[in-house]
Amino acid sequence: MIVVPCNLEAKEIIKLKPNGIFLSNGPGDPAATGRYAINIIQKLIKTNIPVFGICLGHQLLSLALKAKTKKMKLGHRGANHPVKNLINGKVEITSQNHGFEVLKESLPKNVEMTHKSLFDNSVEGIKLKNKPVFSVQYHPESNPGPQDSHYLFNQFINLVKKNAKKKRY
Q1: Phi/psi zone of residue 20: left (φ > 0), alpha (ψ -120 to 50 degrees), beta?
Q2: How far is CA 22 from the centre of its chain?
Q3: What is d(CA 90, CA 2) in angstroms, rounded to the nearest whole number?
Q4: What is the pLDDT of residues 110-119, one digit of tens each?
Q5: Cβ pair 25, 139 in contact under 8 A
């Protein structure tokens, strides 16, 4: 694992020959952070390297995919937030700490909403339909109780392993 600064140019990240790219959590306003990060993320998406984003990483990925974000009135804070996985229909109990959301109506046609909040129906997860790129708004790495969302890390690791087998560099 190599941790890079948030403003490292895409070509420098690609030189490191990553098998996967993780866009970490915040804090921050995604629009302000996006001034330098969106262009970098867009270039990384074009490489077909698997990308997984959490929290601010989810918001920045969404902006890079041409969706929009807005400040929430109250935000989502704390544990025990029910989120529905729209792929398998299961409800996950999640930990959350964010004040911005991705606007569902702004999601482009090539982006699928994969998770939604059962409190307010806000976007809690997305995936790019034609590339190994996905993200969630909540914190699957957090352990306040249930570990319902740890499968996301397995999903990412599987994509990374599959990508590592390719002779790309």
Answers
A1: beta
A2: 8
A3: 33
A4: 999 999 999 9
A5: yes
What would the two tokens of residue 9 be?
């140019």
- Evaluate whether 93 touches 133 at the Cβ level (below 8 Å): no
Residues with a known catalytic role: 55, 139, 141
* Strand order from edge to edge, sheet including 21-23: 21-23, 51-54, 133-136, 123-128, 111-117, 69-85, 91-102
The secondary structure of 6-71 as a DSSP string is TT--HHHHHHT--S-EEE----S-HHHHHHHHHHHHHHHHHTT--EEEETHHHHHHHHHTT--EEE
What is the residue type of 114? Answer: T
Neighbours of 29 (CB within 10 A): 15
Query: pTM above the 0.90 mark?
Result: yes
Residue type, position 168, single letter: R
Q: What is the pLDDT of residues 95-131, one digit of tens each?
A: 999 999 999 999 999 999 999 999 999 999 999 999 9
Whole-number Å distance between alpha carbons of 83 and 151: 14
